[in-house]
Design the sequence.
């Protein structure tokens, strides 16, 4: 039996937890996995210290160490790079049949009417969407720019933590440390970066093409189960 609204009676919407469950669940899972990484990382780090005949470190000391920081930030920068490239790339790049792509005929930045900008902004549109100056230009690219800033900051943090961790390893092997600029050209820095970049790009490529032919019922990342393989930009 279908539900009907009663005039004059306020219909309660979803509660806070339900309305924000996607962010809350993934945010909580992130913290759990980060804690688990810290536990496993400390164990591995202490095993390496034991092999070198050095004193093991406590959990707090490991959390403040460059080894833990570089392991975390090297993954963060690759994730933000993925989303930065994806956000900007999907403006002009399309994939026929994928829900991850816009319809082929809508490639590009689209019109102000389509984007509800300027004179076409609505009463509930963000304030800067209705302006016609630099604020509109900035806000209309704010998601991609923010991802780019997060990528650059985390990549910089990786380089700083990476040179400290790498030099710590060199000192344990009685080798001279490297300065930051020399480390930026080292195989260690680029190996850490590129091994993550290639995996992120592979994941995006696989998602774009597999979602053409495969389905996940109820997910906005998938087309409706019965949609044709050629249907593009349709979410389930």
Sequence:
């Amino acid at each position: 039996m279908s539900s009907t609204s009663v005039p004059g009676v306020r219909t309660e919407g979803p509660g806070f937890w339900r309305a924000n469950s996607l962010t809350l669940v993934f945010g909580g899972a992130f913290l759990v996995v980060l804690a688990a990484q810290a536990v496993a990382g400390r164990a591995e780090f202490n095993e390496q210290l034991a092999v070198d005949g050095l004193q093991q470190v406590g959990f707090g000391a490991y959390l403040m160490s460059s080894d833990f920081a570089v392991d975390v930030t090297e993954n963060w920068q690759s994730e933000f790079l993925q989303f930065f490239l994806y956000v900007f790339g999907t403006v002009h790049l399309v994939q026929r049949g994928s829900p991850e792509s816009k319809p082929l005929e809508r490639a590009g930045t689209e019109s102000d009417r389509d984007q509800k900008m300027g004179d076409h902004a609505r009463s509930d549109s963000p304030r800067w969407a209705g302006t016609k100056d630099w604020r509109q230009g900035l806000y209309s690219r704010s998601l991609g720019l923010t991802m780019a800033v997060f990528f650059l900051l985390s990549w910089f943090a990786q380089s700083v933590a990476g040179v400290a961790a790498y030099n710590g390893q060199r000192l344990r092997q009685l080798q001279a440390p490297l300065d930051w600029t020399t480390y930026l050209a080292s195989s260690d820095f680029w190996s850490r970066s590129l091994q993550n970049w290639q995996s992120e790009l592979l994941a995006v490529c696989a998602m774009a093409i597999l979602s053409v032919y495969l389905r996940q019922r109820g997910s906005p990342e998938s087309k409706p189960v019965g949609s044709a393989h050629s249907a593009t930009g349709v979410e389930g």
In short: The chain has two domains: 21-64, 70-108+142-236. The radius of gyration is 24 Å. The CA atoms of residues 61 and 83 lie 32 Å apart. The mean pLDDT is 90.
